[in-house]
Amino acid sequence: MELHILEGENGKFPLLLDDEMKIVNPVYEYMKKLKSDNKADNTLIANGRDLKIYWDFLTHNFYIYDEITPRHIQQFREFLFKENPYDSTPVGHEDIRVAIIKSGLPSKASSTWLGVEMVG
After folding, report:
1. Which of 60, 107, 61, 83 is nearest to 116 (CA)?
2. Distance CA 76, CA 58 (A)
């Protein structure tokens, strides 16, 4: 999983690629929405980093993003609080922890796009 920051005349745009260097379409569509809502470049980049952490978690556990349940979100929370998930602390790790602590565990009905409120 790689996060690339594309730069152009319209600003910056985070692009998440899977291990086969294919675009992670749900993240791409979400980033397009944020860009169309005129979110700041730093907001897009922060969300991109947070979503990379989330997508790494999904991939590592063989989960499918649109089949996530509150149990999976709890596992994700536990993953974030590990000393060193996957033996390294990813960029943005602390920011997403703060967002989850502030928002609490969302219910399935009230969850945001990925079930976790992201900082950005």
Report:
1. 107
2. 9
pTM: predicted TM-score of the whole model, two decimal places? 0.67
Q: Provide the token pair at 115.
A: 């079930």
Hey, is 36 helix, strand or coil? helix
| Digit-coded pLDDT (tens) for 42-97 | 999 999 999 999 999 999 889 998 999 999 999 998 888 875 555 544 444 445 44
Q: How far is the C-alpha of 89 from the C-alpha of 11, rounded, in Å? A: 28
Per-residue pLDDT reduced to its tens digit, 10-57: 899 999 999 999 999 999 999 999 999 999 999 999 999 999 999 999
- Consecutive H or E run containing 50: helix 41-60
Q: Hey, where are the domains in the chain?
A: 2-103
Please choose, from the candidates 95, 30, 18, the residue with its C-alpha nearest in 3D space to the C-alpha of residue 58.
18
Question: Under a CB-based contact definition with an 8 Å cutoff, are residues 30 and 113 in contact?
Answer: yes
